Amino acid sequence: MKRFLHIILSLRLAAVCLILSSCENEDQRRIPEASVYMELNLATSYPTFRNSLNDTLVFTHPRNGHPTDRVGYGGILVYTFVNGTEMNYCAFDLCCPNEVNPLIRVYPNDQGQAVCKSCGTVFQLLTGTGLVESGPSRWNLKRYSTHLEGDILYISR
């Protein structure tokens, strides 16, 4: 009987772990893994971007003269937003998670959204989340890490 209870408890624990791990980052796993790394100098290369609210930068290819650039699966969308009183930066893969094709990309509009022209899904940028606002996608945009150190904005996986 003890062995039976031990097996049941082990199976329940395994099921809970499986459920938690499968739900944890479904949005992040939807888009295939690809190298992501950029260093953006906000003082010299993008001086107006640093203090511009709801502004975007779009990179579909590595920049000329930047051999370490890696732009993910479909490219990188960088967005500026305010959280409380602080300017923040977020970065997302340009690939639409509903389409999962590196050539079908989302593009920012002037209303703080990113839109896929293929499936019509609209994603939230204003809050830096990349959440689905409307459309057929069940998955949010794949988000990348951003870190501002001095004048350099680092983007990585």
Please provide a written account of the structure.
With 157 residues, the protein is of the alpha+beta class. It has two domains: 29 residues; 126 residues, Rieske Iron-sulfur Protein (3-layer Sandwich). It has two helices and eleven strands; from the N terminus they run H-H-E-E-E-E-E-E-E-E-E-E-E. It is globular, with a radius of gyration of 19 Å.
Question: Main attributes?
Answer:
34% strand, single chain, four-stranded antiparallel sheet, 2 domains, 157 residues, Rieske Iron-sulfur Protein
* Low-pLDDT residue intervals, each spanning 5 or more residues: 13-24
Biggest sheet: strand arrangement: 2-4-5-10-11-1-3
CATH architecture of the largest domain: 3-layer Sandwich
Helix content: 10-25%
Proportion of beta-strand residues: 25-35%
C-alpha termini separation: 48 Å
| Domain module tally | 2
Provide a count of the helices.
2
Helix/strand/pairing class, anyone? alpha+beta
Let me know the number of strands. Answer: 11
Level-1 CATH class name of the largest domain? Mainly Beta
Radius of gyration over all CA atoms, rounded: 19 Å
Q: Strand count, sense and closure of the main sheet? A: 7 strands, antiparallel
* CATH fold node name of the largest domain: Rieske Iron-sulfur Protein
H/E series, N to C?
HHEEEEEEEEEEE
Could you state the CATH homologous superfamily of the largest domain? Rieske [2Fe-2S] iron-sulphur domain
Outline of the structure:
The chain is of the alpha+beta class and 157 residues long. Helices cover 18% and strands 34% of the residues. It is built from two helices and eleven strands; from the N terminus they run ααβββββββββββ.
